[in-house]
Amino acid sequence: xxxxxxxxxxxxxxxxxxPVHLDLVLEDETVVEAIPxxxxxxxxxxxxxxxxxxxxMVSVIERICGICSFGHGMxxxxxxxGNMGIQIPxxxxxxxxxxxxxxxxxxxxxxxxLLADSFGFESLYMHTWKLRETVLDLFERTTGGxxxxxxxxxxxxxxxxxADTLALMERKLTELVPEIEELAKVFIEDxxxxxxxxxxxxxxxxxxxxxxAVGPVARGSGLRMDVRLEEKDRLYVDLGFEPCVETxxxxxxxxxxxxxxxxxxIELIKAAIQRIPDGEVSVPVKGNPExxxxxxxxxxxxxxYYYSKGAGEKFLKRIRVRTPTNANIPAMVKTLAGAQLADVxxxxxxxxxxxxxxxx
Amino acid sequence: MKFLSMGKVVLRxxxxxxxxxxxxxxxxxxxxxxxxxxxxxxxACIFCGLCARKCPTDAIxxxxxxxxxxxxxxxxxxxxxxxxxxxxxxxxxEHTHVVPxxxxxxxxxxQEPPEAEEEAAEEQLETPASTEASLGQTDSESAxxxxxxxPQEGExxxx
Lengths: 360, 159
Ligand code: SF4
Ligand code: SF4
What we know:
heterodimer, A: alpha+beta, Cytochrome-c3 Hydrogenase, chain B, B: alpha+beta, Alpha-Beta Plaits, two-stranded antiparallel sheet, 5 strands, 30% helix, binds iron/sulfur cluster
């Protein structure tokens, strides 16, 4: 048996976008075991529910993540709305869908750039992030913020978007499609990219299901699971949503799932803009949450859930957020076992880790 | 499998215009919808303190006695809850951000007493003896009515 070496990897490491620590047990260049540890960026956001009244808590929950911040704000609002039995206006539902899908486009572009960076393809990285700027500009124009949007509130939305701006959004996204296609070809077809991704970190459908993988990781392994489908969200059903599934289960498949979702999200946004009805974007909210409720949202990284427990007071008893990275860490550890040391950064990245969300 | 599939894109970028702004020489243009720095019309403020209560980061301080409204610029997260809360509509979001700085900016806005009172106060200043007397009166008066929202130095001139 070859001699075993333990290499501490992270929490601060040039290839890591997030502070996670791994003890990599190596035999020569092969990883035999990876022992993850987290706890470097806990911020105690859930505890703040004791200090902030529930309507203002949205601004705290949004800050769980700087990338899926809209989804987090929306998930929290859905949880409280379910708790209090509030039905928001249809226009607000459509706008939430538009922003949520725009958030997915933003997140996946960001991830593609980081992936290119992880295998050292710097020009691909920069070009992908250039496209992401267009999406951020659209966010800025419609919500007033580039990273934290502060538009969701319990009972609907804090601001409306006029028809001209929606038309502009549609036009900009249509212009973006050929540019994304150009780069998508590099990710999918280029031989040097393929040699770093194909057959690396294979996760079978059975393993993904047994380890509780969610989001693009599960869909890349052939599992047809997506909260947008499972919750039977009326809007997504109307728009004919069908999750993107790939069967290879390797890093390349996870990359292809995200690229296909980019185009799918843009199509969903454009279809939603065509159908969006006129009307109010919020309803008045009276009273306080009294029950327990769990809302689920398909974040760009996978399923997230938002638990709220009220006691009829301004302060909630408990908030609990389970983020997708939390569910994907076992799958990541599984793919690391047996991998080459040089592939470790890519394998960590293919679950699109967000440790700040995981620890909150 | 393709080789050098990025070539066309890279060449186009190489000979094209830069994608970045020439900041700080080219100023950034913000959309009208931007939620930027908080502005205040201090004369319309009634110092109710609601904005300070709603602020999630405790960036605002309202002093009713001194009629002052203070904002810690670097603590503000641009959520605009204060703007939504203010009943007097005296807060708004500017369409620009606070400029970067090496110190944490704190801006205090003070409401000047209305003009009529100002004049009265000036008259008082010209006759020092009576000013002292009336100021003394103010102290005792305001001590007696600590809950009164607007004890002012200028007021006793009328008394
Ligand atoms: S809520 Fe408006 S009126 Fe009240 S203190 Fe704040 S700025 Fe002044
Ligand atoms: S914008 Fe938000 S953080 Fe800034 S002062 Fe107003 S309430 Fe406070």
